[in-house]
Amino acid sequence: MSTPVVTRFAPSPTGFLHIGGARTALFNWLYAKHTGGKMLLRIEDTDRERSTKAAVDAIIDGLKWLGLTWDGDPISQFSRVDRHREVAEELVKKGQAYYCYATPEELTEMREKARAEGKPPRYNGIWRDRDPSKAPKGVKPVIRIKAPQQGETIVHDRVQGDVHFPNKDLDDFIILRSDGTPTYMLAVVVDDHDMGVTHVIRGDDHLTNAARQTILFNAMGWDVPVMAHIPLIHGADGAKLSKRHGALGVDAYRAMGYLPVALRNYLVRLGWSHGDDEIMSTEDMISWFDIDDINKGAARFDFKKLEAINGQYMRMSDDKDLFDAALSILPEIEGGKELEAKLNEKNRSEFLKGMPELKERAKTLVELIDNAAFIFSDRPLKLDEKATNLLNDEGKTILKGIYSALESCTEWTKEKLDHIIRNYAEEAQLKLGKVAQPLRAALTGRAVSPGVFDVLVILGRDESLGRIRDQIA
């Protein structure tokens, strides 16, 4: 019987959950679900100066918002330092590691000598076979691994294939610092082993780490997990992803009005695909996802593509779910707190009633809220510049005619209103657009809005007539 798959997502809490980290978490989560295994969450917080509780909270909130659940409690790497130290000392006893008493001055001298000879600045193994009894007084030693010096270390990678590292390039790196704290290399290996991690899925910027970690697994006689190093995400222009491309925290995408299900669908296709399928249910992703299908080339982040996918999910969303999602991000968006303060039973009802039309025209929740802003506007409406221009003398004359035609309407439906306004335009020998423009300006305060008949229905008879009356009074 095969060993159950255990993946892990292991972020450092030195900042928010960025988009690359979110994709790594998603791939780990999908593979665990696909194989009926588990995904664990390990917070790599051994860097005490840079690790913050706020960052831990942001990472956990981001994962929860994306719908990526983990098994068991999050594990703090820092809480396991005694175990890491124990393994480092065990390696010394086994002859696989040694105490190194090189002083900072000696190390500086080594680096400068290597540079002068045109070699990489590396530790020269001076204490590898030296008797510790010759240690200088007052120097606290570090522990270094006895890395193999001949041949090569091979990382058998499910994405990159076999990657060969000449051992002469992998020096005797430090595994325990002089203050007794573990280095990242040691902590990761010990934690992955103790947590039963079978598959390590992470960014390909960790490939060199994988070679060093393989040396540590072998030194302890432990099984090396299956490695899968996924290419990093680049911007649409092919350059390394930066903030201008979209290298933002997951919280920023929430505040930009993206739906978690849409962001998940977009992220899964950054470096992995299933035929030509664009829109995938979570069930489909889980069913289809396999690490062997991850692309070797870097994926490109494209906001336009993300917007298009988000727009599709918005149109497919239940009206009430979309209404709740829009209201939930009001505190996070520009002008949202003012809108939140204006919420009452009447405009909530109008917003929900208008959702079928509003969601057809929006690609994000922010756009949806902006398109619905007319619902929350106080009377008399503040007009933007274009709306003011539309309500010139000619526009107000047209508006007076429309008001008279609409005032007699008792059946306030889209079909009936369409019929009345078209009739009025025909009788006044005006194009429909010429009539709709000042009407839109009076109803919304803007020159651009959802369809004018939709706006009339959303606002209802009394509010619509009141807004028109305000402009022709």
Automatic annotation (TrEMBL):
PROSITE patterns: AA_TRNA_LIGASE_I. Residues 344-472 form the Aminoacyl-tRNA synthetase class I anticodon-binding domain. GO terms for cellular component: cytosol. Its EC number is 6.1.1.17. Residues 119-138 are annotated as: Disordered. The keyword Transit peptide does not apply. It catalyses: tRNA(Glu) + L-glutamate + ATP = L-glutamyl-tRNA(Glu) + AMP + diphosphate. ATP binds at K243. InterPro entries: aa-tRNA-synth_I_cd-bd, aa-tRNA-synth_I_codon-bd_sub2, aa-tRNA-synth_I_CS, aa_tRNA-synth_I_cd-bd_sf, Glu-tRNA-ligase_bac/mito, Glu/Gln-tRNA-synth, Glu/Gln-tRNA-synth_Ib_cat-dom, GluQ/Sye. It holds the Pfam family Anticodon_2. GO terms for molecular function: ATP binding; glutamate-tRNA ligase activity; tRNA binding; zinc ion binding. Residues 5-307 form the Glutamyl/glutaminyl-tRNA synthetase class Ib catalytic domain. It is found in: Cytoplasm. It is an enzyme of class 6 (ligase). A motif ('KMSKS' region) lies at residues 240-244. HAMAP family: Glu_tRNA_synth_type1. Monomer. Belongs to the class-I aminoacyl-tRNA synthetase family. Glutamate--tRNA ligase type 1 subfamily. NCBIfam families: gltX_bact. This is Glutamate--tRNA ligase. It comes from Bartonella apihabitans. The gene is gltX.
